[in-house]
Amino acid sequence: MNTPRSEQKIRPLPDLLISQIAAGEVVERPASVLKELLENSLDAGATKIEVRLEEGGVRLIHVADDGCGIAADDLPLALSRHATSKITSLEDLECVASYGFRGEALASIAAVARVTVTSKQVGAAHAWRLQRSGDEGDSVQPAALSGGTMIEVADLYFNTPARRKFLKAEATEFAHCDEVFRRIALARPDVAFSLTHQGREKWRLASASAVRPFENFSRRAKEIIGEAFFPHARAIDVAAGPLRLSGLAAMPAYSRSGRDEQYFFVNGRFVRDKLLMHAARQAYEDILHGARHPAYVLFLELDPAGVDVNVHPAKTEVRFREARGIHQFVFHAIQRTLATPLSGVGADEHGQDANHPVDDSPNDNSPNGLSDISYFSPYPTASTYQVPLGMSEAAVRPYLDFARAAFADAGDTSLARTAENALSASGFPPADNALAPPLGYAIAQLRGIYVLAENAHGLVLVDMHAAHERILYEQLKTLLDAGSPATQALLVPIVLSVSARELATATEQMEALHTLGFTVASIGPRELAVRAIPAILSGGDIVGLVRALLQDLAEQPASRVVETQRNALLSTMACHGAVRANRHLTLPEMNALLRQMEATERADQCNHGRPTWVQLPMAELDKRFMRGR
């Protein structure tokens, strides 16, 4: 029977009930407990952490470390609410750099589980143990332990059966524990980790020993994420004042159907921050299909005073003092890295792109087991070539003229000289040429769709329409940034039969069309005349382009359409202006296309997020033909 509201008294809650309420926020599932224990170990300066789980962590979570340990007098306080060694004042809270600081995690865990803490402080004669089960606890007892701290959490939610009913199957709970373990291990390659479940070892990660921090991170990332991520990843290391963003961002060829490979760390703490995720997504917007998700492992470092981590009970959300500045910094850092042309990607001393090692192993997810796209250095090592095709000087001259013009304007004549020296009468570089372009030199065209080229690593296949589409798209953006693109007046206007809606759109959006480089006029109740077009699109499908452009414009408001939907409109223009399938190119035209790709930002993907080229390494070709066996 419910007590009438008027007779209900306000009274203080018992300490156990307070801790159990707090546990509802902090201890969501076994993975939440594991996260708190691992972070405590790292805050204690541990260099080796061992984790043992039973029944997905519901029956037992055992975490042992070699950290500084806890003094015997402090053990009861460790299981008390709001007791911590990490902060002492508001100033400490505003600049907190440790993983934990609230001092309520262990108390909340002890309120809903059977907890045993065994610890030996550095320099102590022996270890001490404290056990607690709900509101029942023992006094501190001597124990045997070589050093560090060992915490066992058994029978989670034993005294709150209603909460235990909400736990999932053992496999599901272990999967959540495994993900927490992977995130923390990924952030700390300097610490050795091991994870055992039901007596079976799942992970054993050695601590990093390399001098260079990036090598340590790369080795740990390969273990955690897998080898398949690395052939598609580009390294990021950008600093601006107190901000620094480092890590790896995968090219769109490695895009995912979900967000399972998105790891963002702020001052070493894994976060799910909407602002950071939006910045990363926006950086991929121009090269990634809308239904796919990028993959990355990124570390943002900044002054702890510039970020508030006391926002969410699980500390997975943060609040930045300069949110807009952080967003723009992250966005531009990722965007610039992804936009780097092939000719600007660094190489190591062996000529192989240090960030994108050659993947010689077949990828089971690709058709016929062929490996996916790889990205290579613009300065590969010397490679031997077969008998040259013997291109004549007259055939090569148009390409050489293009190469000079393309790179002289940018003040970089090295590639133009390389092309001229390489493409002599034979058409291919000599065997000792160590400055071959990253996409090599064209050797043939397949079905009027693909360009086949040979580079230092093997065979390159290029989708010529997708590649030319990206080139035109980037050129159009550059031209529009500088003002309206140069136009070409048509000697004979192109007349289109249009619908009433298309005619109305052309009339309403006349200024937008002019900004994009088109001059159109109504010459009848259902006819439009196209009198001028962007000069860069003079060889494209003008009729199809104008119709597609009118359809896009009809779906947008008349005011400021170019500013708000510029990239979508330019993408449509580039798609219709690009070289079409079944057009046969000469070798100089194919080589000119390859050189333009190397000098174009984001040339690895077309405007729709599809790859523009694929590398088939020689090792893979040899394997398919069983050479060397």
What structural keywords apply?
19 helices; alpha+beta; 23 strands; five-stranded mixed beta sheet; nine-stranded mixed beta sheet; 629 residues; 21% strand
Structural overview:
The relative contact order is 0.08. α2 runs parallel beside α7 and α13 crosses α18. The protein is built from 19 helices and 23 strands. The longest helix is centred in the first third of the chain and has 18 residues. About 10% of the residues have low confidence. With 629 residues, the protein is of the alpha+beta class.
What does this entry show, briefly?
The chain has 629 residues and is of the alpha+beta class. Helix content is 34%, strand content 21%. The longest helix has 18 residues, at 170-187.
